[in-house]
Amino acid sequence: MNKFFSSIAAFYSKLRKNKLACELIFWISSLIVIAFLIVTWVTSKKLFLIGSAVGFIGIIIYFLLNPEIFKESIKEVKSDKIKSEGLSVTLRIIIAVAIAIALLAILNGKLPKIDLTSSGIYTISKESKELVKTLDKEMQIIYFATTSKLDSKEGSIIQSILKQYEKFSKNIKLEIVDLNKRPDLATKYGINEDGTVYLAYNERNKKLSSIDFWEMTQAPDETSQGKQLFIAEKLISSAIRYLLSAQGKKIYFVMGHGEKYTNDYQEAGYGNISEYLGKIDREVVNINLLEKGKIPEDASVLVIAAPKEDYSKEEIKIVEDYISKGGKFVLITDFDVNTNIVAILLKKYDVIQEKGVVADNTNYFYGLGSFYPISQLAYHKITEKVQEYNKPILVSTAAPLILNPNTPKSEDYIIISLGNTFETAYNDISKDYDFKSEPSFDKNTEKKGVKHIGFVIESLKEKNKKGENAPIGIIFSDSDMFTNKTLKLGNAIGNLLLFENSINFLVDDFALLNIPGKDLDTTKVTLSAKTQKLISLTSFVFLELLMLLIIFGIRFAKNFKSKKEIK
Questions:
Q1: In the chain, where are the structural domains located?
Q2: pTM score
């Protein structure tokens, strides 16, 4: 090790004595930096900054090899007679400082931003990055906001997100419009709301309201608070996907038999899930089977959500014909649902709905009760993202679903569990359910064992575009999983992701795998552009001053030692 440092010291000493080499290092480095800075300034390509950095390092090495240059410069400034050599020394310092300032000016605000928030508020996901890379034409994105909105926290976040989209696609042209300065553009594009994001692609456009970018979840109990989630990325990516697609996907909800209603915003309704599907460009349509006489051909999925009344023979035939022709469906049952259409579809796919309601006195969500059993998700494309984001599935007062153990495997389809309870779960049977009191297990009438929260049915004869089993339908055991009351709970995000992924799977559209809302309640912060500029400038100035102090310190120590020896 000593030999290594000795050789370095010898090389340093030899290089210092070679004045020609030192001069070449300075002027070549200076020319490299100046050339690369000019190219960077003209082209705005960050790649050229690498070359300028290499040249700048060469200049620093020159000053380290010639620390006496600063002393000579001071003498030259104090001298009455300006010598050519002295002028050359000062000129070198001026050039070096000028280059440092130029480098700072070009780097200012162009350094890559680092998102230090735990939920990644200021960055976009891998799914969104891959999505924008598929753009083959120019997409125009305009953010319309007032000056105060642009300067607000919300405006800053939206701008950061949109700049990320622009960064990952050369076909995205982003424009930030201050409504206070350009009200004429708001009129031109039909913008009536502060904070609107306008997207245009291939002669189609989409407008996103800033009101929809924030989603507040209710607290799971009275002792805690709800959370504000930022869902702008999901909505922007959904809008991009919508503009890329030839047409949207229509989800038909059957009505007329006491099903969960998509326009109902009471606790037991499906208004929130319907509204959410609309935000991600799934068109929700309510359908009365007898009025239509058939399922429309543009139906991507048919949802039968916990009907309380029997279907007529004609309605049953309409549903069966739709499924037999390859139509995709979602059947949602519940502990108190015993209608004919549910029984027919469960029997068709070898699923048994046991009597009673699922309860678990051992493994349940504390604070909610035994009728909220903890479930374990099985691995499937539908549950993959829910598991990745580590979100629980809330199931309450569910129907006990099991597979028929006596039915041989079908050659036409395969049925796969999406998740199940623990072995400690059982089907609680009671004449009059009182869900406010805890149930007790009766070994004489009730049976413990695994109960399934849902199944996915896949065809063994048909394949999708990727060569995988084509989907047929999905069965869920609990209609409360997707009600307004459940989805507003702070820990029910997994339910929302589960339903969205189920729809995505059925329509064979995973272009945008679930991007969950991002929690703003975080102790970590991201560096704003202003703060980053200040830190960058301070760091450069501090390092240069430190280098100068070291050099002057060394020279001062040597001079002091020399004077002492002379005395």
A1: 2-110+530-566, 114-244, 247-512
A2: 0.62
pLDDT tens figures, 446-501: 889 999 999 999 999 998 877 889 999 999 999 999 999 988 876 678 898 899 89
At 94-152, the pLDDT tens digits run 555 555 555 555 555 455 555 656 667 778 888 888 888 888 889 999 999 999 999 98
Q: Who's near 533: CB < 8 A, 6+ residues apart?
A: 108, 109
User: How far, in Å, CA of 19 to CA of 330, rounded?
Assistant: 82
Quickly count: other Cβ atoms within 10 Å of residue 75's Cβ: 12
CATH class of the domain whose range is 114-244? alpha beta
Helix (H, G, I), strand (E, B) or coil at 210: helix
Helix crossing, 529-566 with 84-107: angle to 10°? 150
Cα atoms found within 13 Å of the Cα of residue 463, Cβ hemisphere only: 4
CB burial of residue 477 (10 Å; 0-12, 13-18, 19+): buried
Contacts of 233 (CB under 8 A, 6+ apart): 124, 125, 128, 161, 515, 518
Q: Of the given ranges (321-325, 361-365, 511-515), which has the lowest mean pLDDT? A: 511-515
Residue 277: what pLDDT?
87
Residue 388, H or E segment = helix 384-388
Residue 131: burial class (beta carbons within 10 Å; 0-12, 13-18, 19+): buried
Q: Is the dihedral of CA 437, 442, 446, 450 positive or negative?
A: positive
Give Cα 127 distance to the centre of its chain.
8
Asked whether the beta carbons of 334 and 281 are under 8 A apart, the reply is no
d(CA 502, CA 411): 23
DSSP state of 481: G
Closest CA to 398 of 340, 323, 475: 475
Who contacts 538 (Cβ-Cβ below 8 Å, separation ≥6)? Answer: none
* Integer Cα distance of 159 and 157 in angstroms: 5
Q: Average pLDDT of the chain?
A: 79
Strand ranges (DSSP E) for 108-259? Answer: 139-145, 172-178, 196-201, 204-208, 214-216, 228-230, 249-254
**Strands 469-476 vs 329-332: parallel, antiparallel or unpaired:** parallel
Structure tokens at 523: 């102790």
Measure the CA dihedral 64/70/76/78, to 10°. -170
User: HSE on the CB side for 19, CA within 13 Å?
Assistant: 2
Are the beta carbons of 191 and 151 closer than 8 angstroms? no
Which CATH number describes the domain made up of 247-512? Answer: 3.40.50
